[in-house]
Each structure stands twice: as structure tokens, then as C-alpha cells.
Fold this protein.
Amino acid sequence: MSDLLTAALAHAARGWHVFPLRPDDKRPAFPDHPADDCTGRDPRCRNAGQHVGWEARATCDPDRIRRAWTARPYGIGLACGPSGLVVVDLDVAKPGQTPPPGWDLHGVTTGVDILAHLTTGHGQRLTPTYTVTTGRGGTHLYYRHPTGPTLRNTAGTVGWLIDTRAHGGYVVAAGSTVAGRPYTVDLDTDPAPLADWLAALLEPAPLPPQRPVVVDLGTGRAGGYVRAAVALEVDRVTTAAAGERNRALYIAAVALGQLVAGGALGEDDAQSVLEQAGVTAGLRATEAYRTVRSGLTAGSKRPRTVAA
């Protein structure tokens, strides 16, 4: 059994969802295409009826893991959301890199030291947790995702040289290499709870008040069909479980994109009603916009007409 397969199985045994990365690389090995270029030829996409990204492909199934890592020496991606993890990514300043205003801490040049400084400022100490040293000498601290709002990825929200990965994000797992540099376990223990002050800092901003979107869907049999289709897809998005909302929005956008391509629904109307559904479900406005655009584009490749 290869070292990479052994490591992937060990991560899965902890309940962490893994997926293949390109060998010695950070990029996912599958799928090999973005959502807006999905043709449905990929078996996973064809069987699911829509694009299936790396997060949905991540698994703890040992049989699937054995098949993948026996085929090629893939790196190991760890999907944070399905794994119930928040990973704090602590970087090291590059030569000549200077801190932004407000972060000049008298020569401190590592995310580890900055996080320790912030933790002390909240009257606490860093709790030992599962820790990985990255290929470039940075640090990944694994924490349990707290109950409450779904946390997503951030860049610089906590502080200079500090990013986080949660729902919608992944990290290169220990046992992998990137550009020949290994990712290694520095402290092998169970992930600690995420500190309350850090969880509060990472919570998404409250949603702004939403104005109802008025869409003229016409009358008659065709209009009734389109109204029912729009209502069904909006309901799909707004009732989706945490961690599934972006995928649900994409599926809805593909379905309505087919109606747009068939001339039964205006593109602007579909964009507006789906964006609002995504934001109402808890997605960020920019994320909802991008997902809807991708889904409408994919749906336009398979037009669906509605009889009058």
C-alpha cells in the first residue's frame, strides 16, 4: 500500500472527506472542467444530471479511496465543509513582504505569531489542536466547525498572513507534496473546538433587507407551467441544507437556464429571482451571482421549450 493511500485512508477514518489532487500539485484532479463548461460527458456529472464539483466528490468511502489512489499517486485534498472543520491557514511572510497598515507588530512575520498575539489580546491561549506544517513552512490548524452559522473561506479577515478554510474550501492534507515539498503532521491530536472569539469574527455579515422580485411570467397554460417551475427551483434553493445551498442554486439555475434558452423565461428575470433565492438562503451576493451565471450558461446548452 502506498504512503499516499495510507494517509488518505487515515484521514477518512477520522471522518474527513478527501478527494484526489493532481500529483504533487494543489489543484483538484477531478473534475477536469469548470461548472460553466460542463458538457455532461463526465460520468459523475452525467449520472447526477448536473455538474459535480470537488466538494461533492469528496468521500470517506475506503473502497472509492483505494480505487483512486491505487490508480495514480494523487495528492490528498481535504474538503473542510463536509468534514466539519475550520482550518486556520497561517502563512509566513515572503522576503521583502511588509505588513499592511495596522499590522506592524515589531518584526513579527508569521501568521502563527500574529494569531498568538490576537489570542492573547482576547485573554486566552492557543489550544493545542491537530496541526500540519505546509510545504512552504506555513501552518494549518484544524478546528471543529462550531454550531451556528455556516462559516466559509476568508482571506485576511482575522489578520495579516491568516486565512481560513471552511465550507466551500479545501486544504492540502498531510501526506501530500506540492512542488516536491511535503505536508507533514506537526501535532497529531483531535481537532479542538474553534475559539468563540474567532468563530464570532468569522461569522458572515447579516443579510441586508431583501426586496421582493416581481417577475412577469405571463398567463395561460405556458405561464402557469413557468410559474410552477420558478417556484419549484426557488424552493429548492431556500430549503437546501447548510453546505448544499450553492449546489442547489446551481441546479436551479441550470433548470431555469433551459427555459431561458427555449424562450419561455427572460434571462434577467431568471437571474434576479435566483440571486435573491441564493442570498435569502444565506449565500453571499457575489457568490450567488457567479453560481447563477454558471448555471444559466450550462442550462442554455440544453434548451427546453414550453407548449402554449
In short: The chain has a mean pLDDT of 88. Residues 3-202 form one domain. Residues 106 and 155 are 22 Å apart (CA to CA).
